[in-house]
DNA sequence: TATGAATGAGGCTTCATTCAT
DNA sequence: TATGAATGAAGCCTCATTCAT
């Protein structure tokens, strides 16, 4: 069923993600990636022309994955508030399930190393958040401020919340942290 | 008048900060730092045994600087809310005045490259924030939640706010962003 | 016909031996070795992870070579005395034919630089000498002293003899030196 | 009573000897020597213009010391054999008392690093050995061979003997080793 | 005499990338 | 597609030596 060629590419991406989060972009030689992935050095460069391209590809995949995860079930919610809570819950769930991906994204965002094209492109995937905020403003449930500012504040608090939630000792403790954190954010947003 | 020995060390630190924020830790060879600082290669390693030690030293300096800047004038404020606003204003002011330092700190925080000793040590400088939140809880003006969580949420939103404020086109626009951002944070915190 | 990969490794070893004996371990940069061997810098480190590993490998090869050379034809000799003479002749012949190898071994033996693992391991190759001495003692033709002491004395005189023989002007002079040197050693050993 | 200046020079020489034998010439930076000797980096280069000059000076001192030690009491002995035994005993005694000096000499002798001037010059101090051998030949007690060869054989066996004697567990064991070793050498030399 | 900050050439090694097979 | 030997530029760091004080 599987294309064996694609399998190698996938193995490289999977291994790269693990190693990058464990050792950083610069602490991870491409030779190590190929060794751990069980392919030859040349194979990596057959699928990705440069190390940077490998990193970019990884970035796009993860961003896509994150966006998809956050939207899940959002259409079932009615109010803007409920939708934002759903997004928050999804985000935290995804973040705690894939801590390597979160770590990768953060490393990527703060590395001067990488081409900014991928960085900007990725932003577009979160435009639905902006739309949601705008909707809330129109309805009068969200503060009538610059939507960009609100999205930015929301996103940054969310990233702090995910970090905190990931370090929770038990699932129930995590749930409480998430609930309180989402309240913080909503109280900050609401009109 | 100046101690010439100290001058060279300072020149290295100053140059390193600029280059690290422009090109990243790994994009900045030590040879470039010494050249730009106007000293010999060996001189850098006379003052800092390794590149890592240079980065750590820079980190500690900046953290210290940031903590001092944030506390400025805090004793004049009476209420917890006023104190938090003052801290917020200070933080944003410092961040927009020293964008390289902000950039450096973020890069440092997300780099697997660097020893975590400096990282943990740095945290201790911000314990006063925790104390302030605790005071607010006791007074009933702040939500009665885990203070660590609140500090974490506050700090992360603040970092988003600083980024937004730094990109403001005019001072008056910046002021507005800051005011709105601090309202967001306070509304999230308040009981 | 030749494995081209092995050829490069051999070229490196051959060049390294020459340069090490001419200029010493520390007077020979790895960059010079690779240049003279006609390979890239990286190639040397592809075959030998460190300079030390290169030196160790060279040491083991030479030790092996020496041991093999010394044993040559020994089985044809009957008496212990004849065997010892044969070994002595072999040793001197090998030493004068490969002065670089002798020089390398001496430099290696007296360099704190190098791992002692290779050093000890090498000793095992000369256990047959000990056995021969023991046999002579049992037969009553060799002094009944600690065999280790006798081997040690024999080996050290032999190294002096090789040095002297190598500096002989003519082959016939060399033969005479060797004959006299072996007499010295045998007279020292015999009961 | 002591010239304080001379004290520093002596401290440097003493420290250098220790460090050189422990870590090798190349494993011992001059900076470490000065630090351990308790002087400034510049001071070392005030007394010795280069590192090489320091090593050479050390070499000459030790060679002188060794020659003096070996001759001790030789005039009391009558026969050539007795004199050679006395020299042998002296040599072993000196060698086991000053293992660092032996180690230093060997390292020096096999290092391409160092100027050969000092090396050759040092040889002259042992001409008395040659004279002694010549005397033995004239008397008919020593083999009538090239005296240079005999001295060379004797010297090299002696160095093996010293190594063996130094590793003796008890003084009485050492004495036995030395007696047997000197017998080996004399039996090799005698007519 | 003595100091130690400063120098800079040079050493070892790494690693992204290529290319013949 | 896949391999892995080979490349060589470039990085970090060492250390003998100098010189102003």
Can you describe this structure in just a few lines?
4 copies of one chain form a homotetramer. Helices cover 76% and strands 0% of the residues of chain A. By secondary structure, chain A is mainly α.
Structural notes for this entry:
The structure is a homotetramer of 191-residue chains. The radius of gyration of chain A is 19 Å and the shape is elongated. By secondary structure, the first copy, chain A, is mostly helical. The model of chain A has no long low-confidence stretch (mean pLDDT 90). Chain A folds into two domains: 1-48, Homeodomain-like (Arc Repressor Mutant, subunit A, Orthogonal Bundle), CATH 1.10.10.60; 51-189, Tetracycline Repressor, domain 2 (Orthogonal Bundle), CATH 1.10.357.10. Helix content of chain A is 76%, strand content 0%. Chain A has helices at residues 4-23, 30-37, 41-47, 51-71, 80-97, 99-109, 116-123, 127-139, 147-166, 171-189. The C-D interface holds C 21-27, 106-107, 109-113, 143, 145-146, 148-150, 152-153, 155-157, 159-161, 163-164, 177, 180-181, 183-185, 187-190 and D 21-27, 106-107, 109-113, 143, 145-146, 148-150, 152-153, 155-157, 159-161, 163-164, 177, 180-181, 183-185, 187-190. The structure holds a DNA duplex (21 and 21 nucleotides).
Which keywords apply here?
mainly alpha; homotetramer; 2 domains; DNA-binding; 191 residues; Arc Repressor Mutant, subunit A; Tetracycline Repressor, domain 2; elongated
């Amino acid at each position: 069923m599987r294309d064996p060629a694609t399998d190698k590419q996938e193995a490289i991406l999977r291994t790269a993600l693990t190693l990058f989060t464990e050792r950083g972009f610069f602490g991870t030689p491409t030779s190590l990636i190929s060794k751990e992935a069980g392919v030859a050095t040349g194979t990596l460069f057959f699928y990705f022309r440069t190390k940077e391209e490998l990193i970019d590809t990884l970035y796009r995949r993860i961003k896509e994955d994150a966006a998809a995860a956050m939207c899940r079930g959002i259409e079932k919610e009615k109010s803007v508030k409920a939708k934002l809570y759903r997004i928050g819950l999804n985000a935290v769930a995804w973040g705690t399930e894939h801590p390597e991906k979160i770590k990768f994204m953060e490393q990527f965002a703060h590395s001067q190393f990488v081409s900014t094209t991928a960085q900007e492109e990725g932003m577009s995937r979160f435009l639905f958040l902006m739309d949601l905020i705008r909707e809330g403003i129109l309805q009068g449930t969200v503060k009538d401020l610059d939507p960009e500012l609100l999205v930015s504040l929301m996103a940054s608090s969310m990233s702090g919340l995910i970090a905190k939630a990931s370090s929770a000792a038990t699932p129930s403790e995590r749930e409480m942290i998430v609930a309180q954190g989402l309240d913080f954010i909503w109280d900050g947003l609401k009109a």
